[in-house]
Amino acid sequence: MVNRSTGSPLVLTLAGLAVFLPQALVGPLAGTLSDCCSRKMMMILADITVALMEFTLIYNDVI
């Protein structure tokens, strides 16, 4: 869709990086954190993170 709307290979590359770069950066940290914490604590932290992100989007009139 990005390539169709812009026709720019640079924008397509940046969109791809925007998708995969956070996974590459947060993945090792999340793996280490999940090894030392319980599953219940990880689920609670994930739910709190999602709630904060949704609140931020709603507060800034994105949603």
TrEMBL record:
InterPro entries: MFS_trans_sf. It comes from the Bacteria. This is MFS transporter. It comes from Cytobacillus praedii.
